Amino acid sequence: LQSKQSLYLHGALFQRHLLLKVGASLRLMSSYTPWSYQPVTGQVQWQTSDTLSYYPLWGAFLYAQVSHTRFFIQAEHLNQALSTAGFFNGPLYPSNDFSLRFGLSWAFND
């Protein structure tokens, strides 16, 4: 079972010239026995030796829009510093570490 939830505040500032969205995201996965990947043969096979445990992934984000310009900054896997054990997507395949993403989009039309 897998679930992804987001909770955010959305509003306008500066006489509705700045649209802003600030929030947090949570990804939950229950314990399961994943398939194993064999890179030598390029095949996926059933295995029963490794079971991946429940692990939540926290994130935070900020989206802003001014006229034709959009900006975002997003932090993923914020709870990595709180846990001593790493999270695995599959047997022997670790998940991504903490990451900080940002972007800018500018439309050149009137």
- Main pleated-sheet profile: 5 strands, antiparallel
Helix content: under 10%
The dominant shape is: elongated
The count of helical stretches stands at 0
Mean pLDDT, to the nearest integer, reads: 85
Main β-sheet, spatial strand arrangement: 1-2-5-6-9
Determine the strand fraction and express it as a percent band.
over 45%
Number of strands: 9
Give the radius of gyration. Answer: 19 Å
Tell me the distance between the termini.
Answer: 46 Å
Class by helix and strand content? mainly beta
N-to-C series of helices and strands: EEEEEEEEE
Low-confidence parts: none
List the helices and strands and how they pair.
Elements: E1 2-13, E2 18-29, E3 36-38, E4 43-45, E5 57-66, E6 69-76, E7 88-90, E8 93-94, E9 99-106
Structural description of this entry:
The chain has 110 residues and is mostly beta strands. It is built from no helices and 9 strands. The protein has a 5-stranded antiparallel β-sheet with strand order 1-2-5-6-9, with no helix packed on it. Strands 3-4 form a two-stranded antiparallel sheet. Strands 7-8 form a two-stranded antiparallel sheet. A hairpin with a 4-residue loop joins strand 1 (2-13) and strand 2. It is elongated.
